Every structure is written in structure tokens, then in C-alpha cells.
């Protein structure tokens, strides 16, 4: 038995013994991540690396059902899903106050009410930690806007801070006993949260008696000694930007005492000990967990979260036997969440059109009517491999596409055409490497199609070996990949309905880009985004939808936001829907008053 293991059966670390044996450099190394999702192991002392994961977006309408028992069940399910993914720390729940409906990450949080937020988050933590998966309250505190989120200084009174912004965290800690808390990016009253001693030490630890781990948000550490002194235990992600040799030097210079260092390391080791009870082995392979009972629970939660704002003239419920049209930009696409780190690919998903059509006894007709995308919608869902599998075949190479006979280093099937390789790694890849993605696209309608390509790196898009889009030279910085990528370059081609077209992307990693690295998340491997949409006349599209509305007994009109309009990294500038959506709603309501409007 190792001298650093205090309990042979559980494998629990003897934290005090370890602290007495670890060198300064070993202690320092444990206070930052190894990579994007893992802590740094010290195998010579039997200290494993543990895996953290962004909270699955799951059901974000939970705040609308006021059912704490249901929250606990959802938390427990997400704990089981975390185990399947080999993760022992879940970076959630998000519980910031939705001070403004324009906030880009408002969809991630529960409510603008601090009491409701605190109770729901606390019971979610209870359920999650029943599986011995550590919950992480985030983002502590006052992180209610995305614009300039790393620089913004939130100025507020002590009363507002205590009664509105801190209260949900205080309640959640008391109810759910989460093992970790994550710092917000922003400043509060002039000091960044990750180095704010009043918040981290005086309130969180001294007053509230929190004894868990306090971590940075990703790239949200801004100092060496200041963050350590305030109480920031773990810098994420790794490798460290602010600790490492700089922190070791600070200890040598007595800018940081070894006692302070031990306090920070103790909290990391305690979290490692907590994670051992989960039974998840180190570097566990990722698996899927998609059981019928899980789908039933999520369906139940979803149905109980629906809010009926108005039912004028008792238009609802609709008659299943009558003719029905489902109209709108969100009708055939399941807009279940906003964009950013909280988004994910669900195991299964049902669009409003699919759900309504399944219930109606007569044929359900569809018309899009309006478009609300900022960039062309992703093509990934509409591609198939030559074997008929959904997605495209992706290959990684150490040589560019011009190299004859190049051999792939790695190959897989991708179902997404928006890929940002922040945490991707393959030891066989050269510092400058390339990739190819190829799939078959079969359009439903004939017409002129627009294709778009945004990259961090370089890229060219081909259809049947004809180059349609080049994003290779004279690049322009845009909003893709948190500002580290280009604008969406576009091309066009006339396609025939039912005909198969071979779509091929040739891509070079971030180091091939003509743009200098930008921001903390860019510059490693890079990414690509491929979109496609049949070009339409917006006026004619609305007229077509209005004509469809006139032919049926009842209409469900689905409008609202999407992952582009509401997303991490940016706030909306206004509360209005797009002009085309407003025009569509007005036209359809006039054509058929028997219309239910669904706003997502």
C-alpha cells in the first residue's frame, strides 16, 4: 500500500501526508490543469488526473416548472451521463441572474429570481452528487453579460450584491453542498472575481463556510500572486499561463507563502478524494448513455416547463382531426438551446413539425416563411457518408491536399460541420497539419444554393471537385470561434433536387492562417464551419407561407431565437425579432386567425 493512501479500500489520499512530502514544484503543478479538461496527475504520489466536463445543456426550461424534486432527478441523470463520459466534475449548474433578456447566456440560467435560482440549483446539485459526481456552481458572481466579459467592471451596492446576486449561490450551497465553485470572468467593484479576496475568502469561505474547490473559468485567471492570495485553487485550462515557474518563483520570493500554497493544494486533493467514490477510473473511455427511461424523464420535464402566455378566444387546444400547417423558421429545426459551451449534440431530438405531424390525423403541411440565420445554416445534418451513415468522413493528415499519396493519421465520422478543436490532440500530428471532410449532399429542392465557409486556419470547399468557396488568402477576421476565426466566405451553385453531390472540405490548422492569433482560446488547432442554404426571395417566402395558412383549419407558427442570435460570447443589441419574422407573424395571423404563435 502506498504511504500516500489513507484507506486501501477507497483509495483515498492521505492529504496531510502528501502535503508534507510534495515539493514546491509538485504542489504548483497540481494547481493548474494538465490540458483542457483534466487536472494534472502526480503518479509518483498516486495522485490521478480527474476529468471535468461542461454541464450537458439538457433541459434549460427547468426554471419554469418550480419542481425541486424533478430538478434532483435531472441532476441525478446528468450525474449518470457524466460517468458514461468518464467525467467526475460537472461544470454546472449555471445560476446567474438574468438581469437583462439581452444576455447571451441567459438561456443557461434558471431565473431572474434569486430565491428560485438558489433552490433549483441546490436541488440539482443534490441529485447530481447522489452519483458522487461533483457539482460546480457558476459563474460566481455578477456574470450577467457577455460583451467584454473578461474586462467589464460590475459596479453595485452591497445590498444589491447580497440580496440579488450572491443570494442564489448562498442558498444553493446550503441546500446542495456542491463540491466546487467557478469564478466569473468579470470584475466586481473594481477587482476581477478570480482575485477578489472579499468575495472568495471573506464571504465564500469565512462567512458561508465553503470548504470545497474554487476554480477559474476557462482562461479566466489574470494574475499569479493575487489569485493565490484571494483563494483561487485551480487555474483552468492547462497548461498554466499564470502558475508554473512564475508561481514557484513567487514562493521563493515569499510573495506567496508555502502555507498559502498548501491551502490551495489541499482543496484540489480533497476534490480528487471526493471523485474516487464515483468509481470512474482515470482516463475512462467515453461511452453513450441513452436509455428509454431517460428520454421519458426529459420529455416529462420538457412538457412541464412549457408556459402558456395567452389563450385568446380559447384557441387552444387544437383539433387533431382538422387540417394543420406548421409554419416558421423554427418549425422544422429543434431549437432546444442557445450557442456556446452549453450546446451539445443530443441523442435524439424532435422538432415542432415532427411532433405535431405525429399527433395530427390528417397530413400536416409546412412552410418556412422567414429566415433568421446570421450565417448560413450548418450543412452537417444533411450530409451522408457513402455507406449511408449520417455525417461526413473526416481525415487528419500531416501533409496538405497538394501532396500526392498522403496517408491519414486519423479517420472518423463527423455529424457536425461546426468544429472548434480547442481540446483535440493526436501525438502523431505535426505542428502544422491538415484535414479533409467529405460527405454526400442530396437537396430536396432544385435551385441556387449558397455555401459558406468560416475557419480558424485555412480552407477550401469543393462540390464534385469544383471549388465553390476559398477561405485561403486575403482572410478577414470575423466572429467565428470566439473571434479567432474569419468571416464566412461564400460561394454558390445551382443544384438539382434528388441528385447526389460530393461536398469536400480541405482545411489547414490554425498555424496556416494569415490572421495573427486572437484571444485566449485561439491559435492551437483551429476550426471550421460549413453552411448551406437554398437562396430564396424573402418577400415571396412570406407570401407562400401566408398562402399555405389560408388553406388549413389551424396553424402553429414557430418563431423566436436560435443558437446564433442567443449565444455565449455576445449579447443581443435589442429585443426585437427579425423584420422577416414580424412580417410573417402579421401576415399569417391576418390570413388565418386560428393561429397559435410559439416563441422560442
From TrEMBL:
Reactions mediated catalytically: Hydrolysis of terminal, non-reducing beta-D-glucosyl residues with release of beta-D-glucose
EC number: 3.2.1.21
First-tier enzyme category under EC: hydrolase
Keyword Transferase assigned: no
Record's keyword terms, sorted: Carbohydrate metabolism, Glycoprotein, Glycosidase, Hydrolase, Polysaccharide degradation
One Gene Ontology molecular-function label: beta-glucosidase activity
Protein family according to the UniProt entry: Belongs to the glycosyl hydrolase 3 family.
Name of the protein in question: Probable beta-glucosidase I
Taxonomic source organism: Fusarium napiforme
Amino acid at each position: 500500500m502506498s504511504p500516500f493512501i489513507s484507506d486501501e479500500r477507497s483509495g483515498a489520499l492521505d492529504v496531510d501526508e502528501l502535503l508534507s512530502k510534495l515539493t514546491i514544484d509538485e504542489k504548483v503543478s497540481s494547481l493548474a490543469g494538465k490540458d483542457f479538461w483534466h487536472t494534472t496527475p502526480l503518479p509518483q504520489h498516486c495522485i490521478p488526473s480527474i476529468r471535468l466536463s461542461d454541464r450537458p445543456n439538457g433541459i434549460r426550461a427547468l426554471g419554469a416548472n418550480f419542481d425541486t424534486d424533478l430538478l434532483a432527478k435531472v441532476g441525478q441523470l446528468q450525474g449518470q451521463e457524466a460517468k458514461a463520459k468518464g467525467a467526475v466534475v460537472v461544470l454546472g449548474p449555471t445560476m446567474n441572474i438574468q438581469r437583462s433578456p439581452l444576455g447571451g447566456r441567459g438561456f443557461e440560467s434558471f431565473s431572474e429570481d434569486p430565491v428560485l435560482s438558489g433552490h433549483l440549483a441546490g436541488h440539482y446539485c443534490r441529485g447530481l452528487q447522489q452519483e458522487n459526481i461533483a457539482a460546480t456552481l457558476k459563474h460566481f458572481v455578477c456574470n450577467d453579460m457577455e460583451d467584454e466579459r473578461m474586462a467589464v467592471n460590475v459596479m453595485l451596492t452591497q445590498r444589491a450584491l447580497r440580496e440579488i446576486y450572491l443570494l442564489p449561490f448562498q442558498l444553493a450551497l446550503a441546500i446542495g453542498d456542491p463540491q466546487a465553485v467557478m469564478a466569473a470572468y468579470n470584475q466586481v467593484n473594481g477587482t476581477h472575481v478570480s482575485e477578489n479576496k472579499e468575495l472568495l475568502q471573506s464571504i465564500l469561505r469565512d462567512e458561508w463556510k465553503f470548504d470545497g474547490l474554487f476554480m477559474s473559468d476557462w482562461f479566466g485567471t489574470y494574475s499569479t500572486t493575487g489569485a493565490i492570495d484571494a483563494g483561487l485553487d485551480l487555474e483552468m485550462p492547462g497548461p498554466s499561463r499564470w502558475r508554473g515557474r512564475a508561481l514557484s518563483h513567487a514562493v521563493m520570493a515569499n510573495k506567496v507563502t508555502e502555507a498559502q500554497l498548501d491551502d490551495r493544494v489541499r482543496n484540489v486533493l480533497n476534490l480528487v478524494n471526493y471523485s474516487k467514490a464515483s468509481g470512474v477510473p482515470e482516463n475512462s473511455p467515453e461511452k453513450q448513455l441513452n436509455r428509454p427511461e431517460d428520454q421519458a424523464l426529459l420529455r416529462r420535464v420538457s412538457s412541464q416547463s412549457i408556459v402558456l402566455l395567452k389563450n385568446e378566444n380559447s384557441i387552444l387546444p387544437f383539433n387533431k382531426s382538422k387540417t394543420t400547417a406548421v409554419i416558421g423558421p423554427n418549425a422544422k429545426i429543434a431549437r432546444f438551446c442557445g450557442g456556446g459551451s452549453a450546446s451539445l449534440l443530443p441523442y435524439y431530438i424532435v422538432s415542432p413539425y415532427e411532433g405535431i405531424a405525429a399527433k395530427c390525423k390528417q397530413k400536416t403541411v409546412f412552410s418556412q416563411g422567414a429566415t433568421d440565420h446570421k450565417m448560413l445554416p450548418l450543412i452537417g445534418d444533411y450530409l451522408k457518408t457513402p455507406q449511408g451513415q449520417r455525417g461526413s468522413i473526416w481525415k487528419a493528415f500531416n501533409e496538405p491536399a497538394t501532396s500526392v499519396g498522403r496517408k491519414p493519421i486519423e479517420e472518423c465520422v463527423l455529424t457536425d460541420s461546426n468544429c472548434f478543436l480547442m481540446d483535440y490532440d493526436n501525438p502523431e500530428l505535426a505542428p502544422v497539419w491538415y484535414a479533409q471532410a467529405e460527405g454526400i449532399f442530396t437537396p430536396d429542392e432544385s435551385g441556387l444554393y449558397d455555401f459558406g465557409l468560416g475557419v480558424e486556419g485555412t480552407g477550401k470547399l469543393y462540390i464534385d471537385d469544383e471549388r465553390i468557396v476559398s477561405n485561403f488568402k486575403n482572410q478577414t477576421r470575423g466572429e467565428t470561434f470566439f473571434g479567432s476565426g474569419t468571416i464566412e466566405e461564400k460561394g454558390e451553385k445551382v443544384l438539382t433536387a434528388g441528385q447526389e453531390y460530393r461536398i469536400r472540405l480541405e482545411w489547414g490548422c490554425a498555424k496556416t492562417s494569415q490572421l495573427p492569433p486572437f484571444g485566449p482560446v485561439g491559435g492551437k488547432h483551429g476550426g471550421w464551419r460549413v453552411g448551406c442554404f437554398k437562396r430564396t426571395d424573402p418577400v415571396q417566402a412570406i407570401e407562400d407561407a401566408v398562402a399555405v395558412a389560408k388553406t388549413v383549419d389551424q396553424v402553429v407558427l414557430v418563431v423566436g431565437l436560435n443558437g446564433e442570435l442567443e449565444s455565449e460570447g455576445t449579447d443581443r443589441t435589442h429585443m426585437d425579432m427579425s423584420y422577416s419574422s414580424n412580417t410573417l407573424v402579421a401576415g399569417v395571423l391576418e390570413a388565418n386567425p386560428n393561429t397559435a404563435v410559439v416563441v422560442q
